[in-house]
Write a structure and sequence with these properties.
254 residues, alpha/beta, binds 1,3-dihydroxyacetonephosphate
């Protein structure tokens, strides 16, 4: 079966953006995608929780999708400071990033907790963007494949489909550092992920599911990374905060 996967370029704004610059950035991207008429990629932006509703209103009618950066595993209740997937859906989101390495590191999130969050995202009818990736120490110890395979096995609950799941491979040591794996390394890890998905979901579903690469994706390296067979887009941090850079990365994927 020959499958063409439409690239997804996702911007993870992390803890950046007040209303002025955040709304301006979203507005500028909305203008560009409208002018592009028929772009060959999908765009997703994941602003901080505080801006989601307002950006959602500003993007109404736009082709840009909106996502949260995390959610709680349950729908409502006594969880001070947390946000549920249902709340994100209610605010206009269609996607939620789950298991980002900064959540795993800063909030000690385990694969089991991440798996419960993915399930919550699905229950709310949203798409989970599940992040996996090795640390530098794990890489140096030759454990990259084992870590990625284990995180995929333990943090992706059964029932994944190309419609409810996107996987983002983000080597922790490449995030915000300006360093990236070689294209051969990215290719190998993405092929491993695709292969593991095929065993769990079947060849056809695995072939449809989008695999993003994240970690220091910039305009000058995006074309090479996005051209790899099993790389179907990017999860972009720092460069997603500049309209020119994010747009340039998106165009490189087409
Ligand atoms: P950078 O693009 O800033 O390296 O961040 C990547 C990332 O963590 C996206 O989720």
């Amino acid at each position: 079966m020959i499958v063409t996967r439409r690239p997804l370029i996702a911007g993870n704004w992390k803890m950046n953006g007040l209303s002025g610059d955040g709304l301006a950035l979203a507005g500028e991207l909305a203008r560009r995608i409208e002018d592009a008429a028929d772009p060959a990629f999908d765009l997703l932006i994941c602003p901080p929780f505080t801006l989601i509703s307002r950006i959602g209103e500003a993007l109404a009618g736009s082709a840009i999708a909106l996502g949260g950066q995390d959610c709680h595993a349950v729908e409502t209740g006594a969880h001070t400071g947390d946000i549920s997937a249902a709340m994100l859906a209610d605010s206009g989101c269609t996607h939620v990033i789950v298991g980002h390495s900064e959540r795993r590191a800063d909030h000690a999130e385990t694969d089991t907790q991440v798996s419960a969050k993915v399930a919550a995202v699905r229950s709310a009818g949203l798409v989970a963007v599940l992040c996996i990736g090795e640390t530098e120490a794990q890489r140096d110890a030759g454990e990259t494949n084992a870590v990625v395979a284990r995180q995929l096995a333990d943090s992706l609950p059964d029932g994944a489909t190309a419609m409810n799941t996107v996987i983002a491979y983000e080597p922790v040591w490449a995030i915000g550092t300006g360093r990236t794996p070689s294209v051969a390394e990215v290719e190998a890890v993405h092929a491993l992920i695709r292969g593991d998905l095929a065993k769990r979901l079947g060849d056809d579903e695995a072939a449809r599911l989008r695999l993003l690469y994240g970690g220091s994706v910039k305009p000058d390296n995006a074309r090479e990374l996005m051209s790899l067979a099993d790389v179907d887009g990017a999860l972009v941090g720092g460069a997603s905060l500049k309209a020119d850079d994010f747009w340039s990365i998106a165009q490189s994927s087409a």
